[in-house]
Amino acid sequence: MIRIAICDDEKTILDEISGYIKNYSEKETSDNLEIFCFDSALELLNALEDGKSFDIFVLDVYIGDEMGTSLARNIRKLGIENPIIFATTSIEHAPQGYETAALRYLIKPINPQKIYEAIEAALVQAKKMSNRLLKFKTENGVENIPVNQIICTEVHAHYQHITLIGGKKIRVRATVTELFATLSKYAGFIRIGSAYIINLRHVKNVSSKEVSLYDNVKIQIPRGKYTEIKEAFWNFQYEEQGD
């Protein structure tokens, strides 16, 4: 199942785009597409912070008083790298859109063939992203977790407690060394002391005493490690912008 989020403050546009995507789903692809409509940037962000996930985003550039490009940047700050398609009446903000690695930029009124082509390209990207899932054996069975939704991990006895976007936690039986060996295959993960692993994508600030992450997560910095952690954070930010 591919989950597509559409965000536009005009119901007629939401209906139009969702109708085109449903038509594409029925006639042009064997993939099952599930569509979710949002009429404000805040509504979509709240859904993401509550742990909802989407494989493709279709965003208006002007969402009421909000900018779709700002929404896209907030989506990226959450560590979500899934494809974004912009739809708008003006190309004025196209440069800002591509700063967020937007896949396509569609001009309203929407041409059905153009959105079919955009969705087809997005599906290719989304399927590649799905390969970046980690399988964890938990008390609830095997769970597939998107790598970039991991905020941090903390050791408790013989278990690693993994915090995800939205505050969800899962418990995995492993040592911190074993878990870090898995996570370090992906860019952005560092260890803090003997108990924590953090995802640098979700770091808001590094002070001399603590690392502040999104979802109000704060981790104390061990004595003498501030410079090392700060440099890792800034180097990662530079590399991400360079990509």
Word description of this protein:
This protein is α/β, with parallel strands linked by helices and 243 residues long. It has two domains: 2-130, Rossmann fold, CATH 3.40.50; 134-242, OB fold (Dihydrolipoamide Acetyltransferase, E2P). It is built from seven helices and 17 strands. Strands 2-1-3-6-7 form a five-stranded parallel β-sheet, sandwiched between helices. A five-stranded antiparallel β-sheet has the order 12-11-10-14-13, with helices on one face. 29% of the residues are buried. The mean pLDDT is 86.
What secondary-structure arrangement, pairings included, does this model have?
Elements: E1 2-7, H1 11-27, E2 33-38, H2 41-49, E3 56-60, E4 62-63, E5 66-67, H3 68-77, E6 84-88, H4 94-99, E7 104-107, H5 112-130, E8 133-138, E9 141-146, E10 150-156, E11 159-164, E12 169-173, H6 176-183, E13 189-192, E14 196-199, E15 203-206, E16 210-213, E17 217-220, H7 226-242
Parallel strand pairs: 1-2, 1-3, 3-6, 6-7
Antiparallel strand pairs: 4-5, 8-9, 10-11, 10-14, 11-12, 13-14, 15-16, 16-17
